[in-house]
Design goal:
With 719 residues, the chain is an alpha/beta fold. 31% of the residues lie in helices and 24% in strands. Helix 6 crosses helix 7. Bound molecules: adenosine-5'-diphosphate and zinc ion (ZN) (2 copies). Adenosine-5'-diphosphate binds next to helix 7.
Length: 719
């Protein structure tokens, strides 16, 4: 037999099938070791066939089988994705095998256990030997290290040499958060039951679950998953990384115990390895995790859930630049199972698909137990400034904060962006201090008294003088989370304040630790950025302050209105989830803005109708597709040259298919340099998807060792 093998080398020159003769036991989906160019490398068996297109006597043989990590579905999905994104197969296969699984860096963990074998004659004076043997007779087996600690090294050794006790190796499962179980399944409300019946009973495969914040969507997901398990199938549950909270884990463990495997960036390599193995072996049937969990090695999938489907983190920013929902759709089709996309603020694209009947629409317009949605008060910051208030807080917000704290409740203060505009400006010449590697301004961090670049992470010593003119009159503009915390401490010295942003959440436990503290009521006010907007359920929070609601309206991006609506709705949704009614103070310099008006009234449909007609009139997604071809290189000249080649190759296409194009041009990217790489782009707006394969092929043909070329579809970020 012949095996078609992809070698695990992500390089376009070896991106093809190599044939090897295969003995019995080499199966499709196996990882094998094969001779390759004078050495032995890992490879994956894509296909087994009779005979070969080559002279069989010239073929080398597969050296050995390592394991069998890829299911038949994985192989079929990998082929589809490689074709769709013009991505080398070896690179696509890496999606299915996290780094921990490759190169043998992590292995199964074994530990020694002491096992009772038989009785033995023990001298009367050897009291601890007798006790140790009696103990093991009772237990049968016991962890070896603890056993030795308990009874002493000498006694245990003696028992081993007498043959009364023997050592065995036992596989240890590094399953994270085993103990974290609380809360039983709830009795579903009639609305929840109706939603589940509508999804499970529909002949449509895909549904949008549009439910306001606090409408009980999570319980619906969990029931859909439990139903799939009861039918003997498996499930995939995708959530944004940031929603993988302590409460979420506790709920999942309580409901599904060890049947749930959690794939989470905060896990250790060993934990990831074991969770992945438990899914592959079928011991665990539910894969829960962020974007990459869509590649979980579960078979016979019975339902796929994508929570907060509008979230930008579902779009991969590394090659292949896949959208998780698109992969989920392929998997749902392969398995013949339901795909459920849930959100309080669906993306305009998804809602459009529901509206036109392409997918089903299930709605939950009310919160659980008819709890009211929080009231959103608008604070006009223009008036505050006129009154001479230069602090980040309006009078209204201060008043509400006082009430909230005096009643012993918790508050969330939300800032639109981490350290937004917290940059350093020279008051003499107006120069803004920029990163040496990126074309972006640096942000001042008062705690470390340094300047940081939020694109590449570089950190700089605080400047004493302007690098342009030497003036010592430097000033800081804007408001960052640190500054807000400082101001709050002055106003409410007794309040305990937590801060959550990219700076405080790096490290293994990251946001998990901060959210747990807040949930355990070890703090009164949580100050944060985008990260605190999503999915969290803190029943004691009765006030949310949004400091700069319009910040995201000013981005020159067609999605900025949509993002602002989503953000306000999501952040507001954190308030009043418990017994008490919640309030929100929304600070803005633009109180008449229609997006804010719709958001204040929780009028998603009003917002959607307005937005969709705007998109139709201006020919933006979902009525068109934006495609950007990025060309980046350390040498500006090389980037420019390659851009030219890409541009002219695409221009041929443009000229023959003009009717497909709404826009076509080349230019510098808005941020001209990131991490020392110059960035140039060809930007296109297309009427449909027909030309996509051709665009990929023509663009990627110009990749080289020094120049990176990649294609982005409807990119979330056009910087
Ligand atoms: P969503 O995901 O739609 O924002 P959640 O799933 O977080 O909403 O539910 C909101 C609140 O309602 C949570 O505190 C949850 O525990 C509670 N809840 C959900 N379903 C029920 C139910 N059937 N009975 C009682 N409480 C429920
Ligand atoms: Zn200056
Ligand atoms: Zn930088």
């Amino acid at each position: 037999m012949t095996a078609e093998v992809i070698v695990d080398i992500a390089h376009s020159e070896v991106d093809k099938i190599f044939e090897y003769t295969a003995a019995e036991g080499v199966k499709e989906g196996c990882r094998v070791r094969v001779p390759f160019g004078g050495r032995t490398v890992d490879g994956y068996v894509m296909r087994i066939k009779e005979g070969s297109d080559f002279d069989p006597s010239k073929l080398k043989a597969v050296a050995c089988v390592v394991d069998e990590p890829l299911t038949a579905e994985c192989l079929s999905l990998a082929r589809a994705l490689s074709a769709r994104y013009h991505c080398p197969m070896a690179q696509v296969l890496r999606l299915f095998l996290p780094a921990e699984m490759r190169r043998g860096a992590v292995r199964e963990l074994y530990k020694n256990v002491a096992v009772f074998v038989r009785e033995a004659e023990i001298p009367a004076r050897a009291k601890s030997q007798a006790a140790a043997l009696a103990f093991l007779r009772e237990r049968g087996r016991f962890p070896y290290t603890e056993y030795r600690e308990k009874f002493g090294d000498g006694a245990v050794r003696a028992l081993l040499s007498r043959g009364a006790v023997r050592l065995e190796k036992e596989r240890v499962n590094r399953t994270p958060l085993r103990g974290a179980a609380e809360g039983a399944p709830r009795e579903l409300t009639p609305a929840q039951r109706a939603a589940i019946a509508a999804i499970e009973g529909s002949e449509k495969g895909e549904h949008l679950l549009h439910g306001v914040t606090g409408s009980g969507k999570t319980e619906i997901y969990l029931t859909l998953i439990a139903d799939a398990i009861a039918r003997g199938r498996s499930a995939i549950f995708l959530v944004p990384e940031i929603s993988l909270t302590p409460q979420m884990f506790a709920q999942l463990r309580a409901r599904f115990g060890d049947a749930a495997a959690i794939l989470h960036s905060g896990l250790s390599a060993g934990e990831k390895f074991d969770e992945w193995q438990r899914l592959r072996s079928g011991e665990a049937k539910i894969a829960i995790g962020a974007r990459s969990a869509v590649f979980a090695p579960v078979e016979n999938v019975g339902v796929i859930v994508v929570d907060e489907e509008h979230d930008g983190s579902y779009q991969s920013e590394n090659s292949p630049r896949y959208a998780a929902a698109e992969v989920a759709r392929l998997r749902a089709a392969y398995n013949g199972c339901k795909l459920v996309l849930g959100s309080a603020t669906p993306s305009v694209e998804t809602y459009r698909r529901a509206e036109t009947g392409e997918i089903g629409l299930v709605e939950l317009p009310d919160r659980i137990n008819a709890r009211p949605l929080p009231e959103i008060l608008i604070a006009d910051m223009r008036r505050e400034v006129r009154r001479g208030n230069n602090s980040p807080f309006s009078a209204q917000l201060r008043e509400e904060l006082e009430t909230c704290l005096s009643q012993g409740n918790q508050a969330i203060v939300f800032l639109n962006r981490r350290g937004f505009a917290q940059s350093v400006v020279c008051r003499e010449c107006g120069a803004v201090v920029k990163c040496a590697q990126c074309d972006v301004s640096l942000t001042y961090h008062s705690e470390e008294h340094c300047l940081k670049c939020h694109y590449c992470g570089a950190s700089y010593k605080m400047l004493a003088a302007c690098p342009e003119c030497g003036s010592v009159h430097l000033s800081y503009t804007g408001t960052g989370t640190q500054k807000v915390v400082g101001e709050l401490k002055k106003l409410y010295p007794a309040a305990r304040i937590l801060r959550m942003d990219v700076d405080t959440t790096s490290g293994k436990e990251g946001h998990y630790r901060i959210l747990k503290k807040f949930a355990d009521r070890e703090a009164d006010i949580l100050v944060g950025t985008q990260m605190i907007a999503k999915g969290h359920d803190f029943p004691a929070v009765t006030l949310v302050g949004i400091l700069d609601a319009d910040m995201s309206l000013h981005f020159s991006d067609y999605r900025s209105g949509e993002r602002t609506f989503q953000l306000i709705t999501q952040v507001s949704g954190r308030s009043g989830r418990g017994q008490e009614k919640g309030r929100v103070v929304l600070q803005t310099y633009d109180p008449e803005n229609y997006i804010l008006r719709f958001a204040v009234n929780y009028d998603y449909k009003g917002f959607y109708r307005h937005e969709i007609s705007l998109r139709a009139a201006t020919a933006f997604p979902p009525f068109a597709r934006i495609v950007r071809v990025m060309v980046t290189a350390e040498e500006e000249k090389k980037a420019v040259e390659t851009l030219k080649e890409v541009y002219f190759s695409l221009k041929e296409l443009f000229e023959t298919r003009r009717e497909e194009f709404l826009f076509f041009n080349r230019m510098k990217a808005p941020v001209k340099r990131i991490q020392n790489k110059f960035r140039y782009q060809v930007l296109m707006r297309l009427k449909g998807d027909d030309l996509l394969p051709e665009i990929y092929a023509r663009s990627l043909a110009h990749r080289s060792r020094d120049v990176l070329v990649y294609v982005e579809e409807d990119p979330a970020n056009l910087s």
